[in-house]
Amino acid sequence: MNLSHILFTTISNQLKLKTFLLNEEKFCVKNLKTQIEFLRKEKENGYKNIKINESNRLSTENNQKLIVMYVINISFLKANTTIHVSDIKGNMKLFYSAGSIGLTGKQKRKRRIATSKLISLLLQKATFLNKKPIVLHLNNVNSYKNFIVNKLKRVFYIRLIKSFNQIPYNGCRKKKLRRKKYSKKFK
Question: 59 pLDDT exceeds 50?
Answer without folding.
Answer: no
